[in-house]
Amino acid sequence: MTGPRFRGASAGGQPERSRGSADRRGAGASDATVPSSGGFEFDAPLFVISVAAQLAGMHAQTLRSYDREGLVSPGRTSGGGRRYSQRDIELLREVQKLSQDDGVNRAGIRRIIELESQVDALRARLSEVTEEVAELRAELVQSRMDAANAAANAIAGLRRDVVPWQEPTTALVTWRRPRRG
After folding, report:
1. Is position 29 within any domain?
2. Angle at the Cα of 134 from the Cα atoms of 133 and 139, rounded to 5 degrees
3. Does the pTM exceed 0.85?
4. CA angle (39 as vertex; 34, 43 as ends), nearest 5
């Protein structure tokens, strides 16, 4: 599928962190927010429904319908009003594209959103595990170096304490008793 990712992707292909309300769209989202290049947070619930509908290019009633069906879950004010983030606007555009251009029904769109959320969660987990493996490898290298140094120091200490082995020879040594004097 082409077009914007459902919950965003950075230039390196890593999933962006999403806000807590994005958890309603799928599993594995984080509570962190990602600032956008426009100076506001990508996940900040800023837009009222009329502005969000205009930005997404659809009718406000369509947004209400998508919210009821769970396709897009905007933030809510204390009075219950919907507030849409930039991420929600992009998701609305993607839902509209899937529906109108690709002919996907709403159940299919819901499944695609769920799968995209799972993919993003797995990418985030893969990134965490990759970092953990790198840290463990660095610790292993350090432990190996520490063990090698400890072994070298132990061997050096033994060399000072042990009489060196000499091959037996057939030479005759004469011994004379020292005179007492």
Report:
1. yes
2. 95
3. no
4. 35
